[in-house]
Write a structure and sequence with these properties.
By secondary structure, the protein is mainly β. The protein has helices at 2-5, 218-240; strands spanning 11-16, 31-41, 44-48, 51-52, 55-56, 64-71, 74-88, 91-98, 103-104, 113-123, 147-154, 158-163, 172-181, 184-200, 203-214. The chain folds into 2 domains: 2-104, Roll (Pnp Oxidase, Chain A), CATH 2.30.110.10; 113-237, Beta Barrel (Thrombin, subunit H). A 6-stranded antiparallel β-barrel has the order 1-2-3-8-7-6.
Length: 241
């Protein structure tokens, strides 16, 4: 059944689960991006070892993960365990054993693109009271002070960014950034809800935030997704070249 839906080169995401060796009970779930390197059998695959900021992430043997495959026929999900890891033809490989059947992933998801983008953000209550009916209002208050940040991934559903200012989990923020879409620089002024906010262990005074877009217009979401597709095509061309 696996080979019916998953093909070589398909993108995938690994999410740590409760008993994974690189996660403790107090830590946030981690996500890693990779792709299918080989299909050994209907319950074993090889994937490229994920990378972050140019460095290989050595996921532990026996670590267990939720895998989401991005295939031509949609999203598919299963649980899997790392049973081996090694280097082959200058590629670091993980051998994964599927521990559940693959199934259609029903919840709507958006593919995330790693990036480095300048942005500005502020809590909506800064400089005044939070407006009522926030969910129904699309605006960016220009009378408040915005702080600089760096967006490190983006999807059609939200983004992750680093900032010197911490925005509490559950709070709503205003933020702005620009993307090149169809060769044109487009500015986005959006609202987001903070889903995760923690200080970086490696950078004291810097905070990682994960936000979900709220009240985003369809054309804005589609424009962001178009940007992601364009960047993915550029990456694939560079890899082939």
């Amino acid at each position: 059944m696996l080979s019916k839906y998953v093909k070589l080169g398909d993108k995938l995401e690994l999410e740590t689960i409760g008993n994974s060796k690189d996660k403790n009970e107090f830590s946030e779930k981690k996500n890693y991006r990779s792709q299918v390197y080989d299909i050994i059998s209907e319950d074993q695959i090889k994937i490229a070892m994920p990378m972050e900021q140019g460095k290989v992430i050595l996921l532990p043997v026996d670590g267990e993960y939720n895998i989401c495959f991005y295939t031509q026929s949609g999203l598919y999900q299963c649980l899997a365990r790392v049973i081996d890891r090694y280097k082959s033809d200058n590629i670091f490989v993980l051998v994964m054993e599927l521990t559940t059947d693959i199934r259609k992933y029903q919840r709507r998801e958006y593919y995330r693109l790693n990036c480095v983008l300048d942005m500005k953000a502020s809590n909506v209550s800064a400089g005044g009271s939070q407006p009522s009916g926030l969910e129904q209002v699309h605006f960016l208050d220009t009378d408040i002070t915005f702080s600089n940040g760096t967006m490190v991934d983006i999807s059609g559903g939200g983004a992750r960014f680093i900032s010197k200012v911490q925005y509490p989990k559950g709070s709503n923020i205003q933020f702005s950034f620009s993307l090149f879409v169809n060769g044109k620089l487009t500015e986005y002024k959006l609202l987001g809800r903070v889903l995760y906010s923690e200080e970086l262990a490696s950078r004291a005074g810097s905070f990682e935030h994960r936000i979900q877009f709220i009240n985003i217009m369809n054309d804005e979401r589609e424009s962001i997704i178009k940007f992601i597709f364009e960047e993915e095509r550029k990456i694939r061309r560079r890899e082939k070249g």
